[in-house]
TrEMBL record:
GO MF entries: methyltransferase activity
UniProt-recorded name of the protein: Methyltransferase domain-containing protein
GO terms under biological process: methylation
Highest taxon above the source species: Bacteria
Source organism (scientific name): Amycolatopsis plumensis
Domain Methyltransferase putative zinc binding: 4-63
Domain C-methyltransferase per the UniProt entry, residue ranges: 244-400
UniProt entry tagged with the keyword Methyltransferase: yes
Coiled-coil portions: none
UniProt keyword terms in alphabetical order: Methyltransferase, Transferase
Family annotation (InterPro entries): Methyltransf_Zn-bd_dom_put, Methyltransf_Zn-bd_dom_put_sf, MeTrfase_14, SAM-dependent_MTases_sf
Length: 405
């Protein structure tokens, strides 16, 4: 019986996405050989309820010098993190010698406003090029994997932190026990650990199965996070649900007894119970919806190809690796994917080998249909690409079901 990565309990598999590549490993078109594949499958722990991948990909295959995701690419996300930074500056970072550490600080999208305010900060992120970008903006950053030993090195060099923040990163880290031991060592007695990640509740509600890929090792709920924190003398004291990236929850964790849990925690736990988020049957039903979406998307794209329509995709997201490889999409069904990230352009998508072009290719000329892989940025993208629909173009979305707009 497979074991839970966090508590050792029995893990039950609920959906198998088959053979998948590394979601962010965009390839040079003439160097396709030797591509790495693994089996992407998701399961739930019967003891602590944590939903997680059945197989772990070695971390340095995913996060390295050439990791191509730059957080500052989205205007909406820049605003979201600026707001987050201002909140910390106004609340938790007002005492003497305030200090904030960010795990997975990437290109410095959140720490920028902290650095500009002259407050002591440190980013920790293992990916070389993105951390270099952060340093070039004046943000203090260590290029390293955060884990217990790294946390102890930070304490020795910099002292303890008032706030440890992480966005879209803690769910990427299979070795959560080491993270929580590190957090417990690094926090000041009344410090807080705040992290936000895609929420299982939204993934199930929207059938957004493409949130499941190599880097998203865990799909959190408040219940699973609270169980985890308690094993390390920590307590879940607040939760906040918001809409970015298709639905996320921000969890606030403090030392047990240091802060009174807010009513929002019990409220979300009750809602999760009512929705059966810790029940296998809920995830099995989700799996049936995934299979239906896969079948509908393949049917639609095949029909459009047979009718001679041009279909391109928009946003070479990590998420799209799961969709493309589950559905067997290739350049015969999707001509190219456009994306603003220079590090992805002129490469091909992992596993599915669809060419990636810059955003200018989108309007040269407009296709008949655009498959919106970056559906989590739909408002931002539809607003700036209004001309596409004025030209008769249609967007294809596949969550919560396959439809065009
Ligand atoms: N926080 C940014 C955001 O929300 O846009 C970046 C998110 S990005 C999807 C995940 C980041 O986590 C990457 O920059 C990756 O290098 C970093 N990462 C992965 N494992 C890590 C670890 N053990 N410690 C610190 N950062 C890690
Ligand atoms: P994400 O869903 O992981 O944030 O990735 C979004 C991808 O979409 C990333 O490669 C950048 C790209 N993108 C565009 O090409 N145009 C846009 O307007 C936005 C917001 C993102
Ligand atoms: Zn468990």
């Amino acid at each position: 019986m497979p074991e839970c990565r966090t508590c050792g309990g029995a893990l039950t598999e609920v959906y198998d996405f088959g053979r998948q590549p590394l979601s962010d490993a965009f390839l040079e078109p003439d160097k396709l050989e030797g591509e790495f594949f693994y089996r992407l499958a998701v399961g739930m722990c019967g003891a602590c309820t944590m939903v997680q991948l059945m197989e772990e990909v070695p971390r340095d295959k995913m996060f390295h010098e050439d990791y191509p995701y730059y957080s500052s690419g989205s205007e909406v996300m820049r605003k979201h993190f600026e707001h987050t930074a201002r909140d910390f500056l106004d609340t938790e970072l007002t005492g003497p010698d305030p200090f904030i550490v960010e795990i997975g600080s990437n290109d410095g999208v959140m720490l920028k406003a902290i650095a500009d305010a002259g407050v002591k900060h440190l980013g920790v992120d293992p990916s070389g090029a993105v951390t270099e970008r952060a340093r070039s903006k004046g943000i203090r950053t260590r290029t390293a994997f955060f884990e217990e030993s790294e946390a102890l090195a930070v304490v020795a060099a910099e002292g303890n932190a008032d706030v440890i923040f992480a966005a879209n990163t803690i769910c990427h880290i299979p070795y959560l026990d080491s993270i929580f031991r590190g957090v417990a060592a690094l926090l000041k007695p009344n410090g807080i650990f705040v992290f936000e990640d895609p929420y299982l509740g939204d993934i199930v509600e929207r059938a957004s199965f493409d949130q499941i890929y190599d880097e998203h090792f865990y799909l959190f709920t408040a219940r699973a996070v609270r169980n985890m924190a308690r094993r390390f003398g920590l307590e879940l004291v607040d939760v906040e649900h918001f809409g970015v990236h298709g639905g996320e929850v921000r969890y606030t964790i403090a030392r047990q007894g240091a802060r009174e849990p807010k009513p929002a925690v019990e409220e979300l736990l009750a809602e999760e119970d009512a929705r059966g988020l810790a029940q296998l049957s809920t995830l099995e039903e989700f799996g049936l919806r995934v299979t239906a979406i896969k079948d509908d998307l393949v049917t639609l794209l095949t029909k459009l190809r047979d009718e001679g329509k041009r279909v391109v995709a928009y946003g070479a997201t990590a998420k799209s690796a799961t969709v493309a490889n589950l559905c067997g999409l290739g350049p015969d069904l999707v001509e190219f994917v456009c994306d603003i990230t220079p590090q992805k352009q002129n490469r091909v998508t992992p596993g599915s080998h669809i060419p990636v072009r810059g955003p200018e290719a989108f309007r040269d000329p407009y296709p008949d249909y655009a498959l919106l892989f970056a559906w989590n940025h739909a408002d931002e993208i539809l607003a700036k690409e209004q001309e596409f629909r004025r030209n008769g173009g249609k967007w294809i979305l596949y969550v919560p079901d396959v439809h065009t707009v």
